[in-house]
Amino acid sequence: MTVAAAVGRRWRGARLSAAALLALLALALLALTAGRGGGGSGAGQPGSPPPPPLPPGLREELRQRRRDLLRLEAAAGGGEAASGGLGCGDLSLATGVSVLGWGFTKVVARAALAGGGAVALKSVHGAGREVRQCVLRYGAPAGCRRLAAYKLLKEVTLLQRLRHPGIVQLHGQCYDNSGDPEIRVTAMLELGSPLEMIQLLQTPWEERFKICLSLVELLFYLAHSPLGSIVLLDFQPRQFVMVDGNLKVTDMDDASTEELSCKEDNDCTLDFPTKSFPLNCSAAGKCEGINEKKNLFNAYRYFFTYLLPHSAPSALRPFLSDILNATGDLRYGINETRKAFEKVLHLYKSGLYLQKRPLLLKDYISLKGFRMVEGEDYKCWPSYSHLGCLLSVHSAEEAATICNSQSQCQSFIITQQRTWTGRPLASFQSSLTDLIPDANAVIYVKRSASSGERL
Ligand SMILES: Nc1ncnc2c1ncn2[C@@H]1O[C@H](COP(=O)(O)OP(=O)(O)O)[C@@H](O)[C@H]1O
Ligand SMILES: [Mg+2]
């Protein structure tokens, strides 16, 4: 059964304790934001009078949203879609509900399932800007919440059809249409944590590159999706979350599969606050590649410019500036961008970017069978550990170059830990006081240090 079809039916089932909790949380948010005219109508509650008819303007908007939803489902082939398996029963048993965040349309909470796993619950934010603006216009809170619910249903429909590591996974859903005109929808999603751009700026380049690469893979998928080329109309860092160190888009209600129609090239200008791009109108009357280009420029302006260039390995900088220039003026499409990213990844993983450097490892003595006691030592940036200087390296040779460039560094070891690219982490030290035997380890000590007073 499709979502739109099911919305036409009535769901009878267990009491929705988690859903009720979410509704309460949304009300608490309403009190906090002190929105005017945002109160509930109580429609559908036992004993309350039948709701007044909806204003014609709102009825028309509702009709349009329902039509869009049906169109989307038809484009997606209709019928059964993967919905993840969780339903109202699981929601009724969920506990420990706490709000994670909210946007204009939805409020998101974390909850623990009976089986022990944790999920993110998304529902309509009754005090959010979308509902409040609608209420100001039409004075019909329940109808306005229904309008917002259609957006969440659209998101659910898209998440059912789109499967990609860069898209948050839908675990299930629960909807209740018994409170006509309201539809209560709760989507159960993979739990993530909101994207903290400031924090990301402080992470090692390799981690920031990973985020940009994941985004490129996502945009490549969206450009070639089973539903056609999909554009994210509200493309901002806050529409993404991190799940196990991976970037995933979570807000899909403003995604569109429509490409702008046109009669001539003049109809196809892609406008951003700082730049405009003239595009071509195809023979089929569509602005060519407009969805793909819009996503790519947004990725450039919100992600690449901040995350890609700074503290990148110097030999990779020309390649990264090429990517920035070519995406910033839309000379590259997503296919070329993906190729360029793959090239950088290859150069980085293979260590080819290190060629033509003086070899410095010869200035170090290797002590096999020892490692250093773990403890605090001097800090460096951007270290993988806050206790000391732990950096990703290609080889002991690169670690020697790094050690030579840091005045406090006297020795280093290559640890067993690996980053996502498979590179080892090297731990740099300023002293050689606490050595312990370890058959698998090697300590590299600066010759100047071993002959000095420190040993
Ligand atoms: N799966 C999730 N895990 C953790 N937090 C999430 C998840 N999905 C959304 N959020 C948080 O909730 C906020 C609102 O969700 P979003 O889908 O963007 O709603 P809106 O359509 O109202 O903008 C997001 O900005 C994000 O911080
Ligand atoms: Mg959002």
UniProtKB/TrEMBL annotation:
Residues 94-455 form the Protein kinase domain. The keyword Hydrolase does not apply. GO terms for molecular function: ATP binding; non-membrane spanning protein tyrosine kinase activity. Residues 38-59 are annotated as: Disordered. Its main location: Golgi. Keywords: ATP-binding, Developmental protein, Differentiation, Glycoprotein, Golgi apparatus, Kinase, Nucleotide-binding, Osteogenesis, Phosphoprotein, Protein transport, Secreted, Signal, Transferase, Transport, Tyrosine-protein kinase. One of its GO terms (cellular component) is extracellular region. It is found in: Golgi apparatus; Secreted. Residues 47-56 have a biased composition (Pro residues). GO terms for biological process: cell differentiation; ossification; protein transport; skeletal system development. Pfam families: PIP49_C (PF12260). Residues 1-35 form the signal peptide. Its EC number is 2.7.10.2. It is an enzyme of class 2 (transferase). It catalyses: L-tyrosyl-[protein] + ATP = O-phospho-L-tyrosyl-[protein] + ADP + H(+). It comes from the Eukaryota. This is Extracellular tyrosine-protein kinase PKDCC.
